[in-house]
Amino acid sequence: MPPKSKGRGKKAVKQQQKRDIAGPWRDRAWRAKADNEGLKKRLWDLEKALEQAREDKRDIHEEMTRQYQELQKQTAAHSQRLEAKVKSLQEQLATRLRESQQTQEMATQALAERDRTIAQLQGRLGAMEKEYEKTLHGSLDLVLAKMAEASRRWEEVATTIAVEHKERLQEFGLNPLEI
User: Which residues fall in a compositionally biased region of kind Basic and acidic residues (predicted)?
Assistant: First the structure.
């Protein structure tokens, strides 16, 4: 484009020269500004990521704390249940031991009572044997005495009858020794 006037032409040339000099600087400035914007965006993204990471860390920490507390509660509850069961079993064991001891004492007493009863019965049996023996000997002695008396009487009766028969046989003239 031809210059319109001389004065104006110099000015235009200077402006053109400025533009030519400023062009690379403008591109650099624009690129720097674009890089600056990119860096700002990247910084903002990193800050957001850092904030998200902190929130995630806080959430994880809170969740782990909650789980830990829940586990502590469960462990405490389980421990209490076990302690209650142990106490219950100890009480049952003590009861069973007392019952066992009472049963053993009762068994010992029953055996002692049985032994006393057996001893008493054996004593009674011995006394009864002696009494029966005494009664039997007495009865046998009495029977023997009665038999001896009966035998003596039968002897007398037999002798009396033999004498009577002998006399009758002799009355008929018979010899009783021959018959």
Answer: 17-26
